[in-house]
Amino acid sequence: MRQELKHKRSLNAKHFDNGDGTFAMEAHIGHIHYKDRQTGKFENCDIKFREENGEFIVDKASYEIKVPKKLNKVKFWVNGKEMDITPIGIKSNVEGKIVDDPETGHKGNVIRFDNVYGQGIHLEFVCRTGSVKKYIVFDQKPDKFDWKFKLDGYNKDKHILWKPRIFDSNNKSQNIEYDIKGNILTKHLPEKFFDDAVYPVRTDTTTSFYAGAGDGFVGYHEDADPPSQAAWDTAHDTGTGTVAAYESTASDMGIYIYGASFDFVKIYRGFFPIDTSGLGSTAEISAAILKVYLAITVKDNYNGDGFDYISVVKTFQASTSELVTADYEDCGYGDSGDAGGHASDANIVKGSADFDVSGFSTIAYNDLTLNATGRGWISKTGTTKIGLREGHDIEDDFPGDPGEALNRETITPKLSETADTSNDPYLSITYTAGETSTGMFAMFN
């Protein structure tokens, strides 16, 4: 019978005795355990709020947060450092309520204060296993665009702030600016964003805790009227992208060739850095599968042309905890042996068989089995850097001007920023360790 070896738990990993002489390790890119402050033992994370003594509390994660039922100061604790967060300009008589996550659907990990800034402007505190976010939610365009929070006890070495963004209900988004002067955090919202937004609109700042997940996509957008070979060449061959996203719950990976009144070419490339150091230097790998769960239905407008597939490639992102636009060319490399990346190279080396886009499921994991080359990219003592590329992008094949059509060849995998780990991408590795034991090693993002 399979049993967990609880004494081998870490923040990111579980170990199991399979009962047949083999062992299994499930290692997530984010935190799945927290260390109990009283016992020092690793316990399973639980990011659901509970109500206790007039407060909403999450304390079974690698952080603790306490939100008063009537909002004043929110207490936040992480890395041995406490910080108080005070929203400025709110109504003090509004009671919060426990609701579900607006982005992921996770149950009970959000506290919402309706109309706390005035009619149609709300505030949410959102807990994820690897981060805490606060959202200002707008049902209509506001009459001010600078929003302030007081941070008492903020320590830049202990409390990490992601760059905030603003996004609407039709997935339009952009990064926004913020500054910290003294202990006042001010978010500066772009007024024009609200003019054609689909409401509600949310703006977030991730406060104080981030587990370091650098999975996501880097893309390039090239305007072209109409879409052309020249526009494709620019989008495919450029070294630096126009957008990088690693804070989303899901990301598109593939190509867009839009005609009609849109007229552009876009290419999105996926990155999945996975800590595989638990294998150990003596492990011998016999099989590996990258498993991805899709958030939405695939777009397969080039079905049957021979390039409508997704394959695993080797990546070279500079940091495993974030993505930047300069990583665009570092998703795959050509068979010229250029180990520096350069995804514009011809004959991109594939780490898996081609997976036809039409074959992807949205109700179960999809298995991309690594070939011998892909298995050779797995680090036994560090981080494995792999990614996903679409077939036209790999083959450098421009599918042609779509005329008035809006053609896409994309998948949208769920990422590690989902609220829990039930649909995260992960790498399942079969290996033998030492001379006598074998096992299945499941690497979760």
**In total, how many domains does the architecture comprise?**
2
Radius of gyration: 23 Å
Helix content: under 10%
Counted by DSSP, the helix tally is 3
Molecular shape: globular
First CA to last CA: what distance?
A: 26 Å
Q: How many runs of DSSP E, i.e. beta strands?
A: 33
Low-confidence stretches: 435-445
Description:
With 445 residues, the protein is mainly beta. It folds into 2 domains: 50-210, Immunoglobulin-like, CATH 2.60.40; 216-419, no CATH class. 4% of the residues lie in helices and 40% in strands. It contains 3 helices and 33 strands. The chain has helices at residues 229-237, 372-376, 391-395; strands at 3-4, 13-17, 23-27, 33-35, 42-44, 50-52, 55-58, 64-68, 74-78, 81-87, 97-99, 110-113, 121-128, 131-138, 146-152, 165-167, 173-175, 177-181, 184-188, 201-210, 216-223, 243-245, 253-258, 264-275, 284-292, 299-300, 309-314, 355-356, 366-369, 383-390, 406-411, 426-433, 437-444. The strands form 5 sheets. Strands 21, 22, 23, 24, 26, 27, 28, 30 and 31 form a 9-stranded antiparallel sheet that branches. Strands 6-7-8-9-10-15-19-18 form an 8-stranded antiparallel sheet, with no helix packed on it. The longest helix is centred in the middle third of the chain and has 9 residues, at 229-237.
